[in-house]
Structures are given as structure tokens and as C-alpha cells.
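Translate structure to sequence.
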């Protein structure tokens, strides 16, 4: 090991060292300057060391002829000085001594890398990329850690091609990359669903992949239902003597449960143990979840009770899996018993535990017992959240107990739990169904002030409610309001308005909405067309309704049974009962209108 004598502290947290013996190398970073008597190496807070060699003419790439003044090797961890002045964890460089450097060029590269790090830290990725290209053009060696962060940033924003370009620059720069940089790019590809590109990077890696590399790829393959391909990657991993860890096996066990069943997954568990890799609680949770999904709840409970205490103890997630399965199969008494056992073992329930129980009880209409569970939560150190209250509010709304629903909404807010948009949508739907549209509009107007922005379904609910009670003018105002907020109305929005306008006798206005809809490239559905035809028939304009039927068919919208019964009733309404019955019989004979529906229409005629 070469002796390095510390000489003095330099600004910005750097130390300078005089080299006393032969050359050494390190992961490139900051800068080297030169004095007549010795070479000086600056080791930055990032633990990077730059080594300069004689000027080397490097090959041309990317259309540029570069003059490389420096040659570097990379070290993956922070170098430190020991107490005796030796530099630890530094790899030897094949490039002899430190003579022949250009201090001014070195300082320029040092400043460029500092600027690159600042840009990346500030999230200015495009500016960082442009600086990187400029540095490479000038023959500078970019900082590996900054470039790794740059790759991560572009991957997070979905720009994997640009991230790949950075990797190419690094590979061509002369720096020796570590596995972390490759892992970041592979992870980016996997998140973007570009598994083939991730596998190509795996094949071309200049360093040995580690278990994290393989786990990232295996997780993506398994999540995509490609278990067979994942097993092939596992074989490659073993051939390279990169041994799987507990995460590797847990990923594969989970995928095997889904694709081949728990019995096959158990074989992987046995293989895992035989190779000295101990399962953890996550592994057991995956298996218990698989057993429950196969409808073998009693076996899952037995598996829970037989979990080896030497390996791991069941946690709250383990119990929640069993609890959810008990509730979904209606075994409420067993669920209560499991909760008591769980607490008795010192495993504290979570908010999720209580929410599972509350949700189950509310679905069964046992709102009183659900409230009891809700009130017990603080005693176990759990604060109810919106998912705790939403099933209760839905239950009250379902039973048309709107006063109780609003009461619990107020309780929720008073306890510091602010309703989410799901809460409000549940309440607004119930109010509109109950005909209390004015209250619904009032709540809608208050949403923004309560920090909860309405979404499309929120407006659709209230617009539909207003349209059904003859308040289409107010509904149209809400349509304009939602457009101003950047929400795009859909077919449901327009169908509600068309239906409301048609019922109010404003058929021409309703037809205008349909034309606008078609002009925006949205195809009206059968419900929308039926509303128009119903309005026309009520206005004794059956001939126009028949024309509209032709228009409907020309637009590729298939008429429904309701379409024909509306027209038949319209013909009868204009005093042509015999003709209407004759047409009804013909349609019934052809199977267009069901016999039961035809009988109902005949009674009306």
C-alpha cells in the first residue's frame, strides 16, 4: 500500500495529500493538481479519487474526436485515511505514476463535475444531461455517482432511452462502472415494463450482477406472469454463482402460488431450506395468503399455528390475511376469537385489522357492532382513518338513514379524520337517490374549501340527481363549472343531461347536446338515443323519433328492446293503436322484443 502523507485541509471539505511512493488508483471524482516535487490528490466528501496519467489519444466516438488527458478507474466505496496516514480500500491502478497532468484542465473537470452534481441534486435533469454531453466532448470524465443519480432521475420520469444514453457515455468514458449504476438502469426498465431491455443490460454488464440485480428482474417477470422465464433467469443466476437470498425465494414462491398452486410453492420452500436460506415472516405470509385464496382456510390456520418459532413469529400482516379470509367466508365468531388470540400473544392489531372487521360487519348490516369496533380502536393505539368510516357511511346511506350518515361525517371531521372523495361520493349518491339534491349541491360547493377536489364521478352524480328532479338548468351550470376545472365530461354526463332535458320537453336542446357529443368524437350510447326518442314520442313527434332511429343505426349504435318499445308506445300515443300492436307482434315474432315485454306494452296500449 502506498504511503500518503496528509498535508493540509483545503476548502469545501477536501483534504490534499502528497504521494510518497508508487501510484495508486481510485474511483474518479474530484481533482488532482501537480507540484514540482510531488503529486497532490484531492479526496472529496464523496470519497472519490482522481488519477491522471500521461496524455492519451482516445478513439473517436459519437462523431467527436476526443483528446483524453486523463485515465481513471472507479472505486465503489468511500476511501478513508487510517490513523497511520495510509489510504484504505484503494485499488491499484495499472497506470504507474502521477506525472504529466494538466492542473488547469483538471480544475475545469473538477468544476464541471461539481456543477453536474448540483444540477442533479436540484432535479435539473435536462441541464445535467446537456452538461454531461459537453464534458464528454471536451474529454472530461464524468462523476459516476452524479451520473447514476441522473440515470435514476430519467428512469423515474419514464425517459429510459435518455438514461441508456448516459450509461453508454459512462461505458465509453473509461470509467469502470459498479453494479449499483447497472441496477438503477435495470430497475428503471423494469418499472417501465421494458423487461427485454432490462435483460439486455443484464447480458452486457461489465461487472458481475449481484442478488439485487436478479431480484429486480425476477420480480418484474413474476408480476407479469412469466414464471417460466423467471426460472430460466434463476438458472443463469446460479450458474454465475450468485446465490439467491430470502427475497429471491419469496418472489418465486409468491408467483408459484398464483400460477401453479401452493403445493408447488411448498416444494420451493423445501428447496430454500435445504440450501441454508431461512424463510422469514414475509415468505410465510405469502404461503398463508396462497392457501387462503385456494379456499383452504382451516389449513391456513393450522399453518399459522405451526409456524416455527425459531424462524420467525407471525406478525400483524399474517393475522390480517387469516382475518380477511374468515370475514369473506362469514366466520365472524372465528374472526373475533383470532383478534383476541392476537392481542393475547402481544401482536398489536393495526388500523387495517380493524378496518377488515368494520367492512365485514357493515356489509352484513351489523352497523351497531361495527361502531363498537370503531370505538375500540383508540384503546389499541389505532386512529380510525377514512377507510374506517366509509363503510359505516355507506351502510347508513344504504339503509336511507341520511341523518345518521351526516352525523358520522361530522364525528369523523371532529376527530381530525378528514373525509376523502370516496366518502363524499358515497354521501352524494345517497342524497341524490333520496331526492335531496339541494343538500348534495351544497356539499359539492364546500368540497374545495375542505381540501377535497371533486372528480368526474362526483359531478356526474350531482348532475344526474339534478336532471332527474327537473333541475337541468342547474345541472348545465355544473357542466360548465367542471369544464372550467379541467374535468372532461363523458358519455354518462351527457346522457344524464339529455335524459333530463327530454323529460322536461326540451328535446331540441337535448338533440343539440347529442350533436355536440358527436362533434367531440364521443359516440352516444343506446341510453342517450332512447332518451331523445322518448322525448320526441311524448311530444307527439313519432316521425322524428323514427328518423332518429335511422340516425342511431347509421352511427353504429345497435337499438335495444327499449328503443322499439318506446317507438311502439309513441305510435299508440298518437292514436295509431292497431298499427302499434301489429308492429309489436311482428317484432315479438322476430325475437327483437321478448314476449314478457310485449305483454306489458300491450297492456299500456
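Result:
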Amino acid at each position: 500500500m502506498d504511503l500518503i502523507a496528509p498535508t493540509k485541509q483545503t476548502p469545501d471539505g477536501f483534504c490534499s495529500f502528497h504521494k510518497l511512493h508508487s501510484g495508486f488508483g481510485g474511483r474518479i471524482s474530484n481533482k488532482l493538481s501537480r507540484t514540482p516535487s510531488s503529486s497532490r490528490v484531492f479526496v472529496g466528501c464523496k470519497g472519490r479519487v482522481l488519477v491522471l496519467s500521461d496524455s492519451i489519444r482516445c478513439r473517436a466516438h459519437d462523431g467527436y474526436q476526443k483528446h483524453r488527458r486523463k485515465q481513471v478507474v472507479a472505486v465503489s466505496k468511500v476511501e478513508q485515511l487510517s490513523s497511520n496516514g495510509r489510504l484504505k480500500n484503494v485499488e491499484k491502478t495499472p497506470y504507474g505514476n502521477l506525472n504529466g497532468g494538466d492542473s488547469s484542465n483538471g480544475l475545469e473537470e473538477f468544476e464541471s463535475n461539481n456543477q453536474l452534481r448540483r444540477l442533479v441534486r436540484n432535479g435539473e435533469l435536462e441541464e445535467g444531461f446537456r452538461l454531461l454531453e459537453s464534458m464528454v466532448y471536451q474529454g472530461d470524465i464524468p462523476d459516476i455517482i452524479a451520473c447514476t443519480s441522473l440515470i435514476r432521475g430519467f428512469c423515474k420520469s419514464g425517459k429510459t432511452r435518455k438514461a441508456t444514453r448516459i450509461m453508454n457515455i459512462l461505458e465509453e468514458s473509461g470509467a469502470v462502472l459498479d453494479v449499483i449504476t447497472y441496477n438503477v438502469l435495470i430497475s428503471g426498465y423494469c418499472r417501465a415494463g421494458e423487461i427485454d431491455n432490462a435483460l439486455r443490460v443484464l447480458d452486457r454488464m461489465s461487472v458481475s450482477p449481484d442478488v439485487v440485480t436478479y431480484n429486480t428482474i425476477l420480480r418484474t417477470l413474476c408480476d407479469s406472469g412469466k414464471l417460466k422465464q423467471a426460472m430460466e433467469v434463476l438458472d443463469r443466476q446460479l450458474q454465475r454463482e450468485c446465490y439467491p437470498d430470502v427475497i429471491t425465494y419469496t418472489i418465486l414462491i409468491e408467483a408459484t402460488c398464483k400460477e401453479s398452486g401452493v403445493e408447488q410453492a411448498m416444494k420451493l420452500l423445501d428447496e430454500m431450506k435445504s440450501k441454508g436460506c431461512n424463510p422469514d415472516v414475509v415468505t410465510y405470509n405469502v404461503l398463508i395468503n396462497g392457501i387462503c385464496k385456494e379456499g383452504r382456510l382451516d389449513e391456513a390456520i393450522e399453518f399459522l399455528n405451526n409456524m416455527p418459532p425459531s424462524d420467525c413469529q407471525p406478525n400483524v400482516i399474517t393475522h390480517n390475511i387469516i382475518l380477511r379470509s374468515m370475514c369473506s367466508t362469514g366466520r365472524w365468531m372465528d374472526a373475533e376469537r383470532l383478534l383476541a388470540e392476537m392481542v393475547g400473544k402481544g401482536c398489536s392489531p393495526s388500523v387495517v385489522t380493524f378496518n377488515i372487521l368494520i367492512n365485514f360487519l357493515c356489509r352484513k348490516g351489523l352497523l351497531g357492532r361495527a361502531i363498537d369496533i370503531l370505538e375500540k380502536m383508540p384503546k389499541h393505539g389505532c386512529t380510525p382513518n377514512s377507510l374506517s368510516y366509509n363503510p359505516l357511511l355507506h351502510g347508513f346511506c344504504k339503509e336511507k338513514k341520511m341523518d345518521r350518515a351526516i352525523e358520522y361525517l361530522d364525528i369523523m371531521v371532529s376527530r381530525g379524520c378528514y373525509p376523502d372523495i370516496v366518502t363524499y361520493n358515497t354521501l352524494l349518491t345517497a342524497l341524490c337517490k333520496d331526492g335531496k339534491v339541494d343538500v348534495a349541491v351544497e356539499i359539492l360547493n364546500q368540497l374545495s374549501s375542505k381540501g377535497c377536489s371533486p372528480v368526474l364521478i362526483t359531478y356526474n352524480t350531482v348532475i344526474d340527481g339534478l336532471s332527474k328532479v327537473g333541475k337541468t338548468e342547474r345541472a348545465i351550470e355544473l357542466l360548465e363549472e367542471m369544464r372550467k376545472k379541467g374535468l372532461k365530461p363523458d358519455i354518462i354526463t351527457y346522457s344524464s343531461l339529455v335524459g333530463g332535458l327530454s323529460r322536461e320537453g326540451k328535446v331540441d336542446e337535448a338533440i343539440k347536446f347529442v350533436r355536440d357529443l358527436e362533434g367531440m368524437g364521443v359516440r352516444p350510447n343506446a341510453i342517450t338515443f332512447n332518451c331523445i326518442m322518448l322525448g320526441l314520442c311524448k311530444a307527439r313527434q313519432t316521425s322524428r323519433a323514427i328518423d332518429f332511429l335511422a340516425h342511431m343505426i347509421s352511427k353504429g349504435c345497435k337499438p335495444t328492446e327499449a328503443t322499439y318499445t318506446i317507438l311502439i308506445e309513441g305510435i299508440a300515443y298518437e292514436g295509431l293503436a292497431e298499427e302499434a300492436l301489429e308492429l309489436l307482434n311482428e317484432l315479438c315474432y322476430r325475437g327483437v322484443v321478448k314476449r314478457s315485454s310485449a305483454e306489458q306494452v300491450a297492456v299500456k296500449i
